[in-house]
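[retry 2/3] PRD domain-containing protein: previous attempt timed out, resubmitting with same input.
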Amino acid sequence: MRVSKVLNNNVVISTDKNEREVVVMGRGIGFQQKPGMEIPTKKIQKIFTLTIDGDDSIDKRYRELLEDIPLPLLEATENIIELAQSSLGKELHPSIRISLADHINFAIERLCNGQIVENGMLWEIKQLYPEEFKIGCQALILLKNASGISFAEDEAGFIAMHLVNAQLNEDMNNTISVTKLIRDIVQMIKYGLSIDLNESSDEFRRLVIHLKFFVHRLIHQSTISDEDDELFQSIRIKYPIAYVCVEKISRYVEKQFKHAMTSEEMMFLTIHVERVRRAPSLPNSLE
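[retry 2/3] PRD domain-containing protein: success.
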């Protein structure tokens, strides 16, 4: 493997056997190296490609980050991504390397300048994305080891949102919109049923998963078609309390997003609302 370009002492660009550009990281790997020279194998710590939307070239913004960000932070970013993919059991979109590295670098700069940013969606992130938040908390340990800086759990929430975004392959604004809408619907269910939802129950977890897919379809204007009206009518009659709650949600969704929920969407949501209604819960403190 030969050097195509030296970005800094610790990062070089090369090409793999398929002639795709790859990033090669390692301490001192670029020191006194020039294009065409053989890369010292013993110094190679990590090799990866960054292919986005079919473009095999290394993204310009990521090149800049590779040149500017210290190697320990780049390594920490890679370790966070590997931890997330292992814990979540899925590949994250390659763009996570750019967004997460950029975010971490900027977060450290802010903290060093005394600028503390609170995460206004921390509660929602904890409740709606518990696995990602757990990884975010583990990421804080990796970042402290790499930089010596301790972050508050607000930062774990920000990292979690980047992981959610990388799973959905979404624009971050869409991911935030999805999270806010799920929060609003959960609150409507809570107050519509006059109960404190048992957020540790399997029923609540299944509801949130259902809402994630529903809201994702809503954002992308992709809906479930109406195919079984007889079953819908049966569910509506069988679970009247849950259905009344879903009707209110439907009106809210139509008002906010100009989307009329189909009967199948309402039917599935009614089933999930009924399940959380029947799940063991604490008495509503408002009563």
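[retry 2/3] PRD domain-containing protein: The longest helix spans residues 172-193.
[retry 2/3] clearing retry counter.
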